[in-house]
């Protein structure tokens, strides 16, 4: 594959400016995220306007999803974990929707942009720290970093600082890599290989959204139950 073809692939996956909001350029990543958010709000409105006592269709699927995360939170944190269902379920549904947004013609998944995954990771870790402070109090939160032994304090602090980096790079790397593979195969064999790779992409989007959510649950559980 020549440098020209590689340049075309990078141009395809790279975010581009859509318009300016005053002096601030607005990129396709932000616009695509707004579109997915609007579709999610519309979808929630349509799915919840006629709820039935016996769930059917999309209501049944959503209730199964929430039951799954309910069970996951109870297994890791006991009944106290139930209070974190809104955070955990929202993270999973939002990230999964962004990962699978390539089903919309012409749209690139915002999670292919490191700025999006970094924003997710930093926001999540800040929320986890706030949950830790609320659970343990400020003094207990600080003591948490000296557990299980005081000499581990520097390592525990570094561990917290590294979490946003690992969360963002894992999600970005997998989504960017998947899109690169599909684009390259589409150029080389436009009618054969992209389809199975795209099916794999659906699984990859699902797995990466779940991994991000599961790690968030683990980080919260560390503050609830300690190291």
Automatic annotation (TrEMBL):
Question: Which GO MF terms does the UniProt record name?
Answer: proton-transporting ATP synthase activity, rotational mechanism
Indicate the transmembrane segments per the record.
24-47, 84-104, 116-133, 171-191, 197-221
Where is this protein localized, as stated in its record? Answer: Cell membrane; Membrane
User: What keywords does the record list, in alphabetical order?
Assistant: ATP synthesis, Cell membrane, CF(0), Hydrogen ion transport, Ion transport, Membrane, Transmembrane, Transmembrane helix, Transport
Superkingdom of source: Bacteria
Q: Which GO terms describe its biological process?
A: proton motive force-driven plasma membrane ATP synthesis
What the entry lists under SUPFAM superfamilies is as follows: F1F0 ATP synthase subunit A (SSF81336)
Q: Name one GO cellular component term.
A: plasma membrane
The record's annotation in InterPro entries points to: ATP_syn_F0_a_bact/chloroplast, ATP_synth_F0_asu, ATP_synth_F0_asu_AS, F0_ATP_A_sf
Q: How does it sit in the membrane?
A: Multi-pass membrane protein
Coiled coil, from the record: none
Q: Name one Pfam family in it.
A: ATP-synt_A
Q: What does this protein do?
A: Key component of the proton channel; it plays a direct role in the translocation of protons across the membrane.
Family note:
Belongs to the ATPase A chain family.
Q: Which NCBIfam families match?
A: ATP_synt_6_or_A (TIGR01131)
The protein depicted here goes by the name ATP synthase subunit a
Give the originating organism: Neomoorella glycerini
């Amino acid at each position: 594959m020549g440098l020209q073809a590689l340049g075309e692939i990078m141009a395809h996956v790279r975010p581009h400016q859509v318009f300016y909001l005053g002096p601030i350029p607005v990129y396709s990543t932000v616009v695509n995220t707004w579109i997915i958010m609007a579709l999610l709000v519309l979808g929630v409105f349509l799915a919840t306007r006629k709820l039935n006592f016996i769930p059917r269709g999309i209501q049944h699927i959503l209730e199964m999803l929430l039951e799954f995360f309910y069970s996951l939170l109870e297994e890791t944190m006991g009944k106290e974990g139930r209070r974190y269902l809104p955070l955990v379920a929202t993270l999973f549904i939002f990230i999964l929707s962004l990962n699978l947004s390539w089903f919309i013609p012409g749209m690139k998944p915002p999670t292919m942009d490191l700025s999006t995954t970094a924003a997710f990771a930093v926001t999540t870790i800040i929320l986890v720290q706030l949950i830790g402070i609320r659970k343990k109090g400020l003094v207990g939160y600080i003591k948490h970093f000296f557990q299980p032994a005081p000499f581990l304090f520097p390592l525990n602090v570094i561990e917290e600082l590294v979490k946003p980096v690992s969360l963002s790079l894992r999600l970005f790397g997998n989504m960017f890599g998947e899109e690169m593979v599909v684009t390259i195969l589409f150029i080389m064999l436009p009618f054969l290989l992209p389809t199975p790779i795209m099916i794999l992409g659906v699984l990859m989007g699902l797995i990466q959204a779940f991994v991000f959510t599961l790690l968030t649950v683990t980080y919260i559980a560390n503050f609830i139950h300690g190291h």
